[in-house]
Amino acid sequence: MNTDLATDQPHTSRVYDYFLGGKDNYEADRQAAEEILKVWPDIRVAARVNRQFMQRSTRFLAESGIRQFLDIGTGIPTEPNLHQIAQATAPDAKVVYVDNDPLVLAHARAYMTGTELGATTYIYGDVTDPGSILKPPELSDFLDLSQPVGLSMIALLHFVEADVPAILSAFLDALAPGSYLAICTITADFAPDAVLRAQDVYRVRNLPAQVRTRDEVTSWFAGLELLDPGVVPPHRWRAGETTDFSPSFDAKVSCYSGVARKP
Fold it and tell me: How much is the pTM?
């Protein structure tokens, strides 16, 4: 396990932090982010809407009775964090955060604390190696996998160039019936020129990047009970009447989201 910060190389979580206006990034991250902003200026909108979807989907899962959460691809802490949303509804909720950036976990341990009843913990792991997350005792000692879990993969899978269906199957096979999967990922369906050019910048900087179509994202929920309104841009997922439903805003966000239940 390599936990070196490698601050001379950009990391996806720190670039994302820059897009959100955070300060926990380095010069290499800022340079990469500025290059991406030149070709896709609206990526900051996408990052903000992703966070809003995380908040709504987490609140929904907590209101649906989920008391255990596995958040993979945690990112630099940005309030409100997932555990704050979950524990505001269910104070006894437990949250496991997972990331492969040691800076993320350093901040998580410093700033993410649970309630008196609930708790949080942190695992250094890589989503492309499900065993690195599922096998360590830090997970099984903290979460009861015989009971439902809310699996959150927000703004993560567009950084995965491996076989996403196989990865998801590995995690879902380990989770109990009644568990949920929440996903939000980038697509080139709405603004192909800008998004594909941004993908190229990520790859030139040796950062993984792979955008998907709606059909691909929909296929990830195969065998699950996909909740209404299905696979939609994240600002269209149960966001209320104040949402901007214009095609131009869809293009700014350029993401798909969905929540599904394991039967």
Answer: 0.92
